[in-house]
Every structure is written in C-alpha cells, then in structure tokens.
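About this split. The held-out portion is used to measure sequence recovery: a designer receives only the structure tokens and must propose an amino acid at every position. Recovery is the fraction of positions where the proposal matches the reference. Here is one held-out target exactly as it appears in the evaluation file.
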C-alpha cells in the first residue's frame, strides 16, 4: 500500500485496512491485540532473564518479538522462536529491508545501478521476496481452507471475506491481500523494534532518567505488570518514548508524496507530479523547535505539571498527510507495553569496564542503533 498511486483504489484499501485493524482491537479496551502484545512482552522478559544479568546483545530477540506480534495479527498465531518457518520469515525480512534501502538510494541516484555489487544485492533481495511470498501464500491457502465466515479471526480472514464479497474494496484479489500483508510485516517489524532498541539504549546511557521511570512505574503500578489502562497515568514513561522517536527517528524520511499542482516553495518552483520526500529527522533536530537537539531529555514533552505536551507541527515520527503510517496506533501500543514491561522487570546498565552505548546509527531503510550490549538485572 505504501507504493500504491493515490486514487480511489488507494483510498478504499487504506480505509478497509484501517477498519480491520480496529476490528482486531486497536482501540484501548478492546483487548485483542493488547493480549497478544502482553504475551510477547512476557516472553521477551523471560528470554532476558535467561542471561542472568550477564552482558548480551538483545537486538535479535527484540526484532523476533515484534515480528511475532505482527504474525499474531495477520495469521492469528505466534511462532516459537526456533520455528523453522519463523526463522525463514525473519531472515527474509532482514534481507528485504537491506535491499529496499539500497534500492531507495538507487532511485535517487540512478547511475549507482552500474556500481559493481548492486545487482547482487537486488538478486539477493528478490530471492528473499519470493520466500516471503511463499510463506504468505501458504498462510492464505490455510486460511482459505479453514475460513469461518461468521467468525473472522485475524487480518487474513477479514481480507479473504472481502475478496469474496467485494463489498468495500472493488476488485480486491488474493494477490492484493498478499502484498498488503507483506507491507504490514516489513513496515511493522523493523520500525518498532528499532525504536524500542533506541529507547533502551538511551535509558541505559542515562541512569538518572531510568530511575525516574522506575519510580513512576512503582508509584502507579506497584508489583503488577503494565496494561494500556495505565498509559494515561504514566506521563514520564510516555515522554521517554516520544523523546526517543524525536532524537532517533527510525524512519527519517516520510513516504514519497507527489504534488497535485504546480507550487512554489520559497524560491523553488515545483511542477505538478513531482515526487516529494519529507526529511522528518531534520524537523526533529531543528534547534528552532528543540533546543540542544542531540540531548536526550524526556521533559521536553512534559509541562510544568508533568502532563504530556503535544507538538504536532514539530513532531511527525509517523509521517503526515494521506500517507500517514497506517499502523501508528498499533506501534504506540506495542512501544508502551514493551517498554513499560521491560522497565518494570529490569534495571539496564552498561557492562562493567565498557563505555556507554554509541548513539551513532546504522543507515538503511530504517535507522537502527549499532550493536551494543547491556546487562539486565531483575528488579
């Protein structure tokens, strides 16, 4: 859907996908997706506890966990971390994300397609795209075989019903459904996983901020685990996540837009039909809006009474306009529940004798932190 040209088809598919997400429990209180997310958060905590406070790099565990959340939403099931199909899916996601990043650069600088090695990246990505297709077609076939028209269980069930009924999306096919599912997997795994890794990196790097998070969690929740009902009562926790999305925007450029008419921006004339890509990262580190922008400071998002401040004009981590991120509500749910659950369960610190984690990023389709190790001590 991200690459579909704007028009009636795009509007219908987006509206339909958004409706399905709401039906699956995106709203607070519906409970369906919250249950899946909390289950995965508990599994991640159990996984971290296995390290017994010793140094480890949890990037793989975090990414696998978020992939499982998406699989629960799409397929109605979760995979064991060692499942062969799941490992194949995760490997394909990683390869496609790397390949798409290279393709994005080549689309801006076409001459780079002649640079040695470019075709190898494209070939490797294509092979992994085929693997993704294979996994998704298998799931579509399984869902078609066991489809309960009166009780749709997950995203694929809702989509297959629409393919048969042609009620809300004219001309929707199973191939369209496969590509919609692939979009959700690719967009919903690396982005949220990267944001959580950045949040844990900055929390580890700033013990005083981590202490404030622990104090707020202890005061509001006590020994129980967080739920979405706690979110309004945890402004400092929310501010940490907002500041993470500002200082290290994992998708630094918004999805491509196009001008619908000739327009002039300052001294530049932009003809109708020109592709326009917004630099979200530039906005988020603009000192006009964010003094000392490279300093991690959650209190930027709190007023004098400690309540969350909304800054819509200078804060757009999910893009904007008609192509604003479809999964924004899901991403915010995931980040809150994972971050608050992990901080409720552990204290994160830098391993003895090593410097704090580096805040440089790995440039790709998303901006991810460089590999780093932490020690997670149970609280």
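Reference sequence for scoring:
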């Amino acid at each position: 859907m991200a690459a579909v040209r704007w028009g009636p088809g795009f509007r219908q598919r987006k509206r339909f996908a958004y409706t399905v997400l709401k039906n699956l429990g995106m709203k607070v209180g519906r409970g369906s997706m919250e249950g899946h997310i909390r289950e995965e958060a508990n599994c991640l905590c159990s996984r971290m506890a296995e390290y017994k406070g010793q140094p480890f790099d949890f990037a793989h565990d975090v990414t696998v966990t978020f992939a499982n959340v998406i699989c629960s939403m799409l397929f109605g099931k979760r995979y064991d971390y060692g499942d062969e199909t799941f490992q194949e899916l995760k490997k394909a996601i990683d390869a496609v994300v790397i390949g798409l990043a290279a393709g994005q650069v080549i689309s801006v600088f076409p001459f780079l397609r002649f640079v040695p090695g470019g075709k190898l990246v494209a070939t490797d990505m294509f092979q992994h795209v085929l693997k993704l297709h294979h996994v998704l077609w298998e799931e579509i076939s399984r869902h078609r075989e066991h489809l309960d028209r009166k009780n749709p269980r997950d995203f694929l069930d809702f989509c297959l019903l629409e393919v048969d009924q042609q009620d809300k999306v004219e001309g929707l096919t199973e191939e369209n459904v496969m590509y919609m599912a692939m979009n959700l997997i690719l967009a919903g795994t690396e982005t949220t996983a990267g944001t959580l890794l950045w949040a844990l990196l900055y929390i580890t790097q700033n013990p005083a901020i981590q202490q404030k998070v622990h104090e707020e969690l202890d005061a509001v929740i006590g020994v129980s685990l967080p739920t979405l009902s706690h979110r309004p009562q945890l402004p400092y926790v929310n501010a940490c996540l907002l500041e993470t999305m500002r200082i290290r925007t994992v998708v630094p450029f918004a999805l491509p837009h196009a001008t619908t008419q000739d327009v002039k921006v300052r001294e530049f004339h932009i003809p109708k039909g020109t592709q326009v890509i917004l630099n979200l990262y530039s906005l988020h580190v603009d000192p006009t809006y964010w003094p000392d922008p490279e300093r991690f400071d959650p209190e930027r998002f709190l007023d004098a009474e400690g309540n969350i401040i909304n800054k819509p004009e200078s804060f757009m981590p999910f893009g904007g306009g008609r192509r604003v991120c479809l999964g924004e509500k899901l991403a915010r749910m995931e980040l809150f529940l994972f971050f608050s659950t992990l901080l409720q369960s552990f204290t994160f610190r830098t391993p003895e004798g090593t410097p704090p984690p580096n805040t440089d990023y790995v440039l790709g389709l998303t901006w991810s932190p460089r590999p780093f190790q932490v020690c997670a001590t149970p609280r």
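Annotator remark: The chain is about 50% helix and 5% strand.
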